[in-house]
Automatic annotation (TrEMBL):
Protein name in UniProt: Alpha/beta hydrolase
UniProt organism field: Corallococcus exercitus
Domain annotation AB hydrolase-1: ranges: 2-234
Gene3D superfamilies (alphabetical): alpha/beta hydrolase (3.40.50.1820)
Source organism superkingdom: Bacteria
Keyword list, A-Z: Hydrolase
Pfam families recorded: Abhydrolase_1
GO molecular function list: hydrolase activity
């Protein structure tokens, strides 16, 4: 099983799920995307091909040769869907936690970040401040925010983070991936869709767009949770995920 993080937070965001998944008998891989956490930050285009190659090469290097379960958070959910679209034979099932790909109207600040040179200048001046200001929207539990800040912000100060994030904004279909989701739906890969009821980053109403694109997906709303339901409510998410993974699936592990 592979846990794919979102566009900014590193692999620590999966910690509450790892133990119950391992206890249930799963081999679990979590990793930092290129440009995030403590992975390399190559000065290249951060588009679908880069993220696909990273996952493919990582699976090969670690000996994951059979089809895998992919679990993706937000941007990681979009990456999981794109990976299935390009490599359906490599994926056994999907769990998508509030996936990107649909959408909200871009704010003026985000639109400006798309502009070459201007985006870099703005990020150099305001990037960390904006990332810090965004964190309270990730959880409905304010006591978690200092922990998120302490574990996340240091990795954003490593050279190359800004380039990776800006290049991702410019070259990924973060709000326009509906056609990819519809293609993946035709594959009928078992899919679990989870959403925090109080998500302020990717609001619950967007779930209806995702469900329309993936009508076969099993869907659950997690109460008392925001954008990180597995981090805020592992007691609710872990049983749903382990039960989903225990169901008969088309191929063997």
């Amino acid at each position: 099983m592979v846990l794919i993080p979102g566009a900014t937070l590193p692999l620590f965001v999966w910690e509450p799920l790892v133990e119950p998944l391992v206890r249930a008998g799963h081999r679990v891989l979590r990793y930092d995307l290129f440009g995030r956490g403590y992975s390399d930050r190559p000065k290249v285009r951060y588009g679908p091909e880069l993220y696909e190659r990273q996952l493919t090469e990582l699976l090969a290097a670690l000996g994951f040769h059979a089809p895998v379960h992919l679990v993706g958070l937000a941007f990681g959910g979009l990456l999981a869907v794109q990976y299935v679209d390009r490599n359906p034979e490599r994926v056994r099932s999907l769990c998508l936690i509030e996936p990107d790909g649909f959408g909200t109207k871009l704010s003026l600040g985000v639109r400006l970040m798309h502009v070459p040179v201007l985006g870099e200048a703005l990020f150099a001046v305001m990037g960390e401040r904006q990332l810090r200001a965004r964190l309270p929207g990730y959880s409905r539990r304010p006591e978690l925010i200092p922990e998120l800040e302490a574990r996340f912000l240091p990795s954003t100060r490593i050279a190359g983070f800004g380039h990776a994030l800006l290049s991702t904004l410019r070259h990924m279909a973060i709000h326009t991936a509906a056609p990819t989701f519809h293609r993946v739906a035709e594959l009928r890969i078992p899919t679990l869709l989870l959403w925090g009821r109080d998500d302020r980053i990717t609001p619950l109403h967007i779930a209806e767009e995702v469900r329309a694109a993936l009508p076969h997906a099993e869907f659950h709303i997690i109460d008392d949770a925001g954008h990180l339901p597995h981090y805020e409510r592992p007691d609710a998410v872990a049983p749903l995920l382990t039960e989903f993974l225990s169901k008969p699936l088309p191929t063997a592990d």
